[in-house]
């Protein structure tokens, strides 16, 4: 004969525990979820706005610097001495303009067939017909640009080129200026968003012009064509969260008028550190609440079940004929006291009934 396992039933302790957990945790968790979503939306908006504002600051600095150089070259290219395409007339202008822009280290002119005419450094004339910036202007671009490695500095340098046209708008030559990118690099590298936020500037072929984290650039003009951010959909429309190398980041990308790419990004953990702290605090609060509810349930459960168990034992004694019992709960003013008094009366009634039976016997 196999003994049947007793069927599990909820006792008063279980019911008290479940009730307290439900009353405490359901509102608490609901409030946490609602407030967490609202806080996350607000924090995401703030992080995105910060990236956009940073992007605009860096982009405006780069565009302003570039426009200044283009205007200077356009004005110089419109002078009669420059249009003459004669070195003796061009060189004084090239020298004065180059001196005015201290970041420029070479200004020179090129004929439509690629021959070098004038230059401000007094150096030997060099053919430039195969250079990208020259070809761009010859093919009709209003401005030609090419980022190269400076022969003397070993650092990225920019060559700008603008057309030289005569009174009939015929292209008679090209004016070019080679300049250090120190100012551009400073604009990019000086940007800081927390500890991990940085800006990256790439040229039209995705070569690094400047990077806010120098440790990420192993060689000058390093190719960033495979950089994860360049392959993220929608990153040029609004800040997007994505994985970059071994970390999660939030970034925003923008194409500049020069054809360059500007990227601003920050590590996700830092950007959303406030949210992580809030979620951690909420989990701690819920854990403490659960522990407190269990402690209260244990206390209340024992306070309720101990007298009931005592009364159950007394009722069992009475049912076995043990009428000499002491009921301690009679003086209680609650339902347990009422039950105790009822059991006491039951004991008295049983005692009287047994006394009558004895007399009749």
TrEMBL record:
GO CC term (a single one): plasma membrane
Top EC class of this enzyme: transferase
Keyword Cell membrane listed: yes
TM regions (residue ranges): 12-34, 284-304
Residue ranges occupied by any HAMP domain in the UniProt entry: 302-355
Cited CDD domains: HAMP (cd06225), PDC1_DGC_like (cd12914), PDC2_MCP_like (cd12912)
Subcellular location: Cell membrane
Keywords, in A-Z order: Cell membrane, Kinase, Membrane, Phosphoprotein, Transferase, Transmembrane, Transmembrane helix
Reaction it catalyzes: ATP + protein L-histidine = ADP + protein N-phospho-L-histidine
Enzyme Commission no: 2.7.13.3
SUPFAM superfamilies, alphabetized: HAMP domain-like (SSF158472)
Pfam families for this protein: dCache_1 (PF02743), HAMP (PF00672)
MF terms (GO), sorted A to Z: phosphorelay sensor kinase activity
UniProt feature coiled coil, ranges: none
Membrane association type: Multi-pass membrane protein
SMART domains with a match to the protein in the record: HAMP
Keyword Coiled coil applies: no
Protein name: histidine kinase
Organism whose genome encodes this protein: Massilia violaceinigra
């Amino acid at each position: 004969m196999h003994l049947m396992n007793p069927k599990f039933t909820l006792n008063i302790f279980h019911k008290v525990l479940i009730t307290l957990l439900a009353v405490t945790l359901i509102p608490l968790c609901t409030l946490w979820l609602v407030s967490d979503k609202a806080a996350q939306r607000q924090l995401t908006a703030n992080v995105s706005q910060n990236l956009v504002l940073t992007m605009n600051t860096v982009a405006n600095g780069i565009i302003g610097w570039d426009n200044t150089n283009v205007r200077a070259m356009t004005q110089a290219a419109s002078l009669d001495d420059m249009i003459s395409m004669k070195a003796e007339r061009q060189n004084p202008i090239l020298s004065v303009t180059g001196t005015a822009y201290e970041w420029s280290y070479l200004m020179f002119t090129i004929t439509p067939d690629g021959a070098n005419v004038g230059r401000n450094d007094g150096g030997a004339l060099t053919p430039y017909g195969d250079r990208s910036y020259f070809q761009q202007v010859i093919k009709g671009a209003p401005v030609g640009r090419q980022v190269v490695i400076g022969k003397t500095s070993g650092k990225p340098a920019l060559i700008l080129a603008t057309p030289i046209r005569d009174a009939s708008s015929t292209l008679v030559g090209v004016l070019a200026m080679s300049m250090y990118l120190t100012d551009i690099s400073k604009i990019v590298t000086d940007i800081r968003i927390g500890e991990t936020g940085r800006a990256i500037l790439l040229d039209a072929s995705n070569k690094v012009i400047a990077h806010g984290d120098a440790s990420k650039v192993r060689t000058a003009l390093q190719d960033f064509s495979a950089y994860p951010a360049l392959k993220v959909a929608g990153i040029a429309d609004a800040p997007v969260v994505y994985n970059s190398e071994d970390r999660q980041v939030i970034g925003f990308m923008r194409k500049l008028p020069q054809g360059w790419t500007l990227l601003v990004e920050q590590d996700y953990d830092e950007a959303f550190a406030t949210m992580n702290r809030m979620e951690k605090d909420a989990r701690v609060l819920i854990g403490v609440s659960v522990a407190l509810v269990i402690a209260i349930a244990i206390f209340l459960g024992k306070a309720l079940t101990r007298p009931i168990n005592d009364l159950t034992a007394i009722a069992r004694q009475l049912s076995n004929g043990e009428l000499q019992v002491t009921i301690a709960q009679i003086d209680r003013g609650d339902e347990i006291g009422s039950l105790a008094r009822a059991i006491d009366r039951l004991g008295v009634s049983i005692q009287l009934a047994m006394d009558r039976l004895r007399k009749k016997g």
